[in-house]
Amino acid sequence: xxxxxxxxxxxxxxxxxxxxxxxxxxxxxxxxxxxxxxxxxxxxxxxxxxxxxxxxxxxxxxxxxxxxxxxxxxxxxxxxxxxxxxxxxxxxxxxxxxxxxxxxxxxxxxxxxxxxxxxxxxxxxxxxxxxxxxxxxxxxxxxxxxxxxxxxxxxxxxxxxxxxxxxxxxxxxxxxxxxxxxxxxxxxxxxxxxxxxxxxxxxxxxxxxxxxxxxxxxxxxxxxxxxxxxxxxxxxxxxxxxx
Length: 243
Fold this sequence. Notes:
By secondary structure, this protein is mainly alpha-helical. The protein has helices at about 15-25, 30-50, 60-70, 110-120, 125-145, 155-165, 190-205, 215-220, 230-235. Among the domains are: about 5-90; about 105-185, no CATH class.
């Protein structure tokens, strides 16, 4: 009995030993055109073995690279893209992503606040800049309350931190409110309808039984006076009979 450990080592095990044997056999095909067609059929077979990768943009190019890798880059064929893979291509490593090493002030506000402050410093003085500074302060307060829910934060603290971040160049207006972005001040679509219902109820309660002028309550002779009962009673006291 021959064990797999005694056989030739698999370069890419997920394709199996038969695919590797066919690629190694293709290297010995003397006719170049026949060898090209033979490898193209092997590539189609390899792609069928992994249908979950069909949606990948470079799936076919990667499969051709795997073919050359299994053939130990000793294969005289041409891929569809016209680029013959080389051994050093399989050892490429992605470029290192630079990480910011600078120290940031007030890190609990996040890096986006730093960008907003830098953008505000480049703006011209005016109402647009003042509104933008107020939005920055509101966002800073919202971020502070998100990560420090157990501690109360006042507008004075946010205004002071904003001045430190901007080097004293950005200041919030005195009458500005920094609670514009808090969840409590966000109006829901049904709030206006609820306010109208409450206003109508309050008007009916203040008007008593009389209701609106000319309404049903007046015609029925409510407490507003001038109803049908007075017409029946002749407008005076007594039992309401005509004399």
